[in-house]
Write a structure and sequence with these properties.
about 160 residues, about 35% strand, alpha+beta
C-alpha cells in the first residue's frame, strides 16, 4: 500500500510540473501578446488536468478492487457480522470482489461498523446471505476500521 502512495505522489508531482509549464507558457504568451502560444499553454494545462483526473480514477478503482489485508503483527482478533454486501463488478483470479459493511466486535470493546473488501469464491459468496453472516476477523490495531474477514472461519 505504501508503494502505491509513493507512486501517486510522484505522478502528482509530474502532473503539477506539467501544469506549471503550461501556466508559465500561458503567462509568457500573454505578456508577449502571442495568441497561438497562449492556446498552447492552455492546452498543456488541460492535458495536466486530464492526467490528474486519470490518475485519481485509477487510484479510486485500485482501492475498490484490492482486498483488505491486515498483517499478523498488527492484528487484533475479532468477529465481523456482515451488514451489507455489494459486488464491486471486479474479479481477481476468478473470485468476485465484494465491498462489505460489517459490524466488528473486539473482545472487551464496544462494537463498531467498518468497511472491508474481499475477493470471495462463489462457494463462500453463496453462504454470505444464507445464515453465514458472522465470521472471525482481524482488525488492524493501529487502524481499527481496517478489517480482514477470515472466510474459512464462519461463526454461528
Amino acid at each position: 500500500m505504501i508503494d502505491v502512495l509513493i507512486v501517486n505522489i510522484l505522478l502528482g508531482i509530474v502532473v503539477l510540473g506539467v501544469f506549471a509549464m503550461g501556466l508559465s507558457g500561458l503567462v509568457d504568451a500573454i505578456r508577449e501578446r502571442k495568441p497561438g502560444d497562449a492556446f498552447g499553454g492552455v492546452f498543456i494545462m488541460l492535458v495536466a488536468v486530464g492526467l490528474g483526473w486519470a490518475i485519481s480514477f485509477v487510484v479510486l478503482s485500485h482501492h475498490k478492487i484490492v482486498p483488505t489485508r491486515v498483517g499478523s503483527a498488527h492484528a487484533v482478533n475479532c468477529t465481523a457480522k456482515i451488514l451489507r454486501e455489494r459486488d464491486a463488478r471486479s474479479r481477481i483470479n476468478g473470485d468476485e470482489v465484494y465491498r462489505l459493511r460489517v459490524r466488528v466486535q473486539i473482545p472487551g470493546r464496544a462494537s463498531y461498523e467498518a468497511d472491508s473488501s474481499a475477493a470471495v469464491s462463489p462457494l463462500v459468496a453463496g453462504g454470505i446471505g444464507a445464515d453465514r453472516t458472522v465470521y472471525a476477523c482481524r482488525a488492524d490495531r493501529d487502524h481499527l476500521k481496517k478489517v480482514e474477514i477470515l472466510w474459512d472461519h464462519p461463526r454461528s
